[in-house]
Amino acid sequence: MADGSVAEVKQALADVGYLADEPAALVSFLAQQLGKPVLVEGPAGVGKTELAKALSRATGRELVRLQCYEGLDEAKAMYEWNYRKQLLRIQAGGEAGWEDVQEDIFSTEFLLERPLMQAIASPEPVVLLIDEIDKTDQEFEAMLLELLSDFQITIPELGRIEATTMPIVVLTSNDSRELTEALKRRCLYLWLDYPELEREMEIVRLHTPELSETLARKLVEVIRMVRGLDLKKPPSIAESIDWARSLLLMGAEDIDRETFTQSMSIIVKHRTDIDLVAERVGVKLADPLRTEG
Amino acid sequence: MAAKLLGFCEELRGEGVAVGTSELLDAFAALGHVDWTSRADFREALAATIAKSQDDRRVLELLFDRYFFRTAEAEAVQRGVTEHAEGGPQAGEGERFDMDELSEAIREAIAAGDEDAMRDLARLAISAFGRGEGSGVVGVDVQRIRRTLGLTAGTQPPAADGSERPPIDRDQLTGFERHLRRELERDLIERTETLPPSRPLAELDRALPTSPTQDLAAVHRAVSQMKRRLATLGHEQRGRKKGQHVDVRRTMRASLETGGVPLRLRYRPKRPRRPEIYVLCDVSTSVTSASVFFLSVLHALHDSFRKLRSFVFIERISEVTDVFEHERDFAVIAQKISSEGGVADVSGYTDYGRVWLEFLTEISEDLDPRSTVIVLGDARTNGREPHAEVFAKVAEKAGRLFWLNPEPKLYWNYGDSVMAAYERYCDGAFECWTTQHLENFVNVVAGAAPAAE
């Protein structure tokens, strides 16, 4: 990716199919210039993870992904000693002195690299995605601090491993808990929200170019109407794209009440939500179809 | 410029945004990479490096306008530029705006969706009406200006020369009103030299979910966190302190890896005990606004805990565990409780003393050191006997007792609130009127676990 200006970054992202808004483009640009991790927050399904993937495509870097979950520990995130192999080594080399063996079994050969280690040790620059950081415990966040500020990992037996190349680090969070100040301090902050009508339409059209413009507009308008309701899970961008695709498959010419009820389950995924949406939005669609106003 | 930016950060700190040196350095580094002449880029760069949450961001945007706007104003005054007639000697020079022309220009800008033009015109319109002459209430002024300009949504009356004018839809008009509002707010900031109370406002936005399911979801999240914390509370410590049982079978099995030498001892896992929770929830009129919130907490708790018994009380106490267990829909539950609870006697005023007595007689046998009691209420006894000694007995029998009060701490012990009498028997008393507080409570409970054991 050319890293000359914000506009170029935006263009590069658009070329790989991610339409970033101004703040997103600017923060991606700054992340590369300053070499700082980016913390992306926002509701589910606004393209936080997709931003990291797009960055990796746009820069031609490999994407290393660490999916966080409750109970994730450093053995699964950073590195682990391959103790079975170590045992084998001890048993196989019976006559070697203790000193040799000890030095030997704590070498990189017996180290199992996990995503964070991979990202640091990689000879090629990578994009490191730490997904849903809010799912982990605070202790895990603390462990990340060394990595995020200095791009290095300390292994007691081996010493410090520093990054040879500067990875682009993207952390995503669904805002399900407050992250620690220390973590935030080390990151650039980006809040992604549901896109504006025009931009969402562009996104939908980008992914389903066959869809006619009027239908796309109608679709996005309905989606926005649905988001405006009090739902347990409002439809995400990915779901509007899915819906657009299925409308194509169904050969729908327009979104009327019938097509809507048939395909509603693609965008709404809770029983109570479905009732609510059918009641509020379905009724509106029953009118003789409004042309775009 | 550096000095200005530092001044800006000073102000941010004053508004409670934590701006550290590292953020400042980042901001400077970031500004080295973006175009300074672009207002949007400049602001975004600052926002990305300095504001680390949505709330911070809001404050930053408000301040950004005020700070850099005022700098511009100050310069304007220095150079003797007067933008508007300010009443007084220099008023004579003030431009007089032609209302019709202005209104026409605004229509055009709205139709074209030109944000910059709309902003300028909004300022012009405010100037035309005279700064500082408004009612002082921004919302009122916005509407007053809009009406005088004859701007309405829908089809527009034909222009003076008889040509058709494009209709303005509601969204576009709202867009212009937003500009007006912003400019008026800035004007207000200018005159009063103070920032609108952004923090309390943000609090209010999030306070007391009154019904929306979205907020219910937030409560559920906080409670599911609480579940994890309560379920694992203190077990690690106990496991380490007290003797564990060696699991011979698993030790032998593990020794196979090391050639039959039992290098590692395997222990029998300690079964985490199930927390038993009793929740008492005040549903009287004094906490009406809070009780929806509390009921949703109860609702969420029932989702998370099996061994949970819930009670609602006003003058008497009534167990509602069944209602929650048989009904999934929150709205139905709320309705059932109000109709079948049978907790109000005559007056409808809370009688805490009586509630404790009833609670104790009803379930004193079930309370043991493993149980946690959570009280949700405002501790307003309406002048009745608080029976703190009975409450003390409850506290003694239960392992832990927490009190969540829907009133800000400031109001505790004022009027008929007897919080102090109860507070000393609690393992913790917290104010709790937003989901934020609830999360806070969860955190404190987790942190204070060993002490409470």
Structure description:
The complex is a heterodimer of chains A (293) and B (453). Chain A is built from 14 helices and nine strands. Chain A has helices at 6-15, 22-34, 48-59, 74-77, 83-92, 98-105, 115-121, 138-150, 181-185, 197-207, 213-228, 237-250, 257-263, 271-286, and strands spanning 38-41, 62-67, 79-81, 111-113, 126-131, 152-155, 159-162, 168-173, 188-191. In chain A, the strands form three sheets. In chain A, strands 2-5-8-1-9 form a five-stranded parallel beta sheet, sandwiched between helices. In chain A, strands 3-4 form a two-stranded antiparallel ribbon. In chain A, a hairpin with a 3-residue loop joins strand 6 (152-155) and strand 7. In chain A, helix 10 packs across helix 11 (213-228) and helix 10 crosses helix 12 (237-250). Chain A starts with 5 loop residues before the first helix and ends in a 7-residue tail after the last helix. The relative contact order of chain A is 0.13. Chain B is an alpha/beta fold. Chain B is built from 20 helices and six strands. Chain B has helices at residues 2-14, 21-31, 39-50, 54-78, 99-112, 115-128, 138-148, 170-192, 198-206, 213-232, 235-241, 248-255, 288-304, 321-326, 330-340, 352-363, 388-397, 419-423, 435-447, 449-452, and strands at residues 276-282, 308-313, 317-319, 371-376, 400-405, 428-431. Chain B has a six-stranded mixed beta sheet with strand order 3-2-1-4-5-6. Chain B is extended, with a radius of gyration of 31 Å.
Key phrases:
heterodimer; A: 293 residues; alpha/beta; 3 domains; two-stranded antiparallel ribbon; 14 helices; B: alpha/beta; Rossmann fold; 4 domains; 6 strands
Summary, kept brief:
The complex is a heterodimer of chains A (293) and B (453). Chain A has helices spanning 6-15, 22-34, 48-59, 74-77, 83-92, 98-105, 115-121, 138-150, 181-185, 197-207, 213-228, 237-250, 257-263, 271-286; strands spanning 38-41, 62-67, 79-81, 111-113, 126-131, 152-155, 159-162, 168-173, 188-191. With 293 residues, chain A is an alpha/beta fold.
